[in-house]
Design brief:
Belongs to the metallo-dependent hydrolases superfamily. ATZ/TRZ family. With about 425 residues, the chain is α/β, with parallel strands linked by helices. The chain folds into 2 domains: about 100 residues, Roll (Urease, subunit C, domain 1); about 300 residues, Alpha-Beta Barrel (TIM Barrel), CATH 3.20.20. It is built from 13 helices and 17 strands. The strands form 4 sheets. Strands 6, 7, 8, 9, 10, 11, 12, 13 and 14 form a 9-stranded parallel sheet that branches. Strands 5-15-16-17 form a 4-stranded antiparallel sheet, with helices on one face. The chain has a two-stranded antiparallel ribbon with strand order 1-4. Helix 2 runs parallel beside helix 3, helix 3 runs parallel beside helix 4 and helix 11 crosses helix 12. The longest helix has 17 residues. The protein is globular and about 60 Å long.
Length: about 425
């Protein structure tokens, strides 16, 4: 007799035994909860969002259609100045983490702002609500509005203090990450010192690369001795096997090979690349060149804080690319599901911990219902005759956060009352 069970100890998945009669027996049963999935439900690995900007959530849907640098000046930088106010930061960041968890993001890579204390509140919100998160205090010491420009020394001092702040939580799920905004906003000295900090504390690095053609041209102007945008980061010690590069829309073959050689990864953000008219990232070429890839929502340039939408957007943009390249094969729904789960885990070097349901990994999981949404109305017109694989397709092409009923991080239920 075949049945599906979620078997949840405090932080581990443990084997269960089922008899031929359908009865379930297990050791120390008082320690566990047994949950049977209802018709229409299936169990899915938690989603990994490799690139999102927590302070920009209030700007979702604003300024779409502007090119990157203009959008930053008109919408992003004025909003980010407000995070000097810790009370404002606390309110926004608590809502951000609730929103991403409800969307099924069990692991998130967050950009904060230059403000150390406010960004610490972002890390604290993730810690309190139970999300697995990498949180970065942004570094900017030039080519930005005056209220967002740090001195090199204060940027480094605040970053190291932030690292210690987050480590003091003693929560293994929440990590500090070195976060130079992009090369335009950081001079050579700051980039190199940040590379040293990443090495000193063995931290992940997150930044942007080759999102927009004007951004690339400006970077070349600022770093005339560098062979490429990627080489700017490499010479500063910022291209490592723990580096996540946002976008990578216009990387050259040589840059992609360098990124692959260093073991760095690219966060593919198809939604924001469309709305800011940045271009279409060639995922298949990145794969051919050996680059690890996962998905990012890139809110607020991305208009939806859901990896379900990122999967759908990745499918749409790759299909659009195929219209102009006869030999280009669009991505499949299997491939974008991989990007959203195990691909993101591999990009972070966490494939031995999360990404799928292999024995011994942490239980980061979603209970998905494509038959009924949370208000019990028909959602994706799924009926009993639809297979599990067809239900996964329906989630990717038709679903949203209303189809996610439960969210677990490391075996702990973190959704329901906190999130709805």
């Amino acid at each position: 007799m075949s049945r599906t069970f979620i078997f949840l100890p405090t932080f581990l998945i443990t084997d269960i035994r089922e008899s031929d009669t359908g009865d379930v027996s297990f050791l120390n049963s008082d320690r566990y909860e047994l949950k049977k999935l209802a018709n229409g439900q299936f169990l899915c690995p938690g989603f990994v969002d490799l690139h999102t900007h927590a302070p920009q959530f209030p700007n979702q849907g604003l300024g779409m259609g502007l090119p990157l640098l203009d959008w930053l000046d008109k919408y992003t930088f004025p909003l980010e100045m407000r995070y000097k106010d810790e009370n404002f930061a606390k309110k926004v960041y608590h809502d951000v983490v609730k929103s991403t968890l409800k969307s099924g993001t069990t692991t998130a890579c967050y950009y904060g702002t230059i403000h150390r204390q406010s960004t610490t509140h972002l890390a604290k919100a993730a810690s309190q609500l139970g999300q697995r998160a990498l949180v970065g205090k942004v570094n900017m010491n030039r080519n930005s509005p005056a209220n967002l420009v740090e001195s090199t020394d204060s940027s480094l001092e605040d970053t190291e203090s932030f690292i210690k702040d987050v480590k003091a939580f003693e929560n293994p799920l929440v990590e500090p990450v070195i976060t130079p905004r992009f090369a335009i906003a950081c001079d050579t000295k700051l980039l190199r010192e940040l590379g040293d900090l990443a090495a000193k504390y063995n931290l992940h690095v997150q930044t942007h690369i080759s999102e927009n053609v004007d951004e690339i041209a400006y970077t070349k102007e600022l770093f005339p001795d560098a062979e490429s945008y990627a080489q700017v980061y490499d010479s500063a010690g910022l291209l490592t096997d723990k580096t996540i590069l946002g976008h990578g829309v216009h990387l050259t073959d040589d840059e992609e090979k360098l990124i692959a050689k260093r073991g760095s990864a690219v966060a593919h953000c198809p939604n924001s690349n469309t709305w800011l008219r940045s271009g279409i990232c060639d995922v298949r070429r990145l794969w051919r060149n050996g680059v690890k890839i996962g998905l990012g929502t890139d809110v607020g340039a991305g208009s939806v804080a859901s990896i379900i939408d990122a999967m759908r957007s990745a499918l749409a943009t790759s299909t659009n690319k195929s219209f102009f390249s006869a030999d280009y094969q669009p991505l499949t729904f299997h491939e974008v599901f991989y990007l959203a789960t195990l691909g993101g885990a591999e990009a972070l070097g966490k494939e031995k911990v999360i990404g799928n349901f292999e024995v011994g990994k942490d239980f980061d999981a979603l209970v998905v219902d494509v038959e009924k949404s949370q208000d019990q109305t028909p959602s994706t017109f799924t009926y009993e005759e639809h297979s599990v694989l067809e239900r996964v397709q329906k989630l990717i092409f038709c679903g949203d956060n209303r189809n996610i009923t439960d969210v677990y991080v490391r075996g702990r239920l973190v959704s329901t009352e906190l999130i709805i």
